Amino acid sequence: MTIGEKMHQTLASLESAAANLKSFSLDTQDPGAKSMFASYAQQLESICQGLRGRINYIEHQEPQYRVMQGQEKQKQ
Fold this sequence. Notes:
Elements: H1 3-27, H2 31-61, H3 67-75
Helix pairs in contact: 1-2
């Protein structure tokens, strides 16, 4: 697995965790827990945004790390 694939996989995992936390926030009736889950989701979304920026930078600087490029080569 390339570094690009690992970074994309990590980003997908973080986005999934953020979505789960949002869901927990909506599902709970406890105001304290609701606030906590929403805050954690927001923090993870901020981390995702930073990681997305880093992925974009790396893929621009080092085109061989582009995940889509690698997948397109495999299809050919």
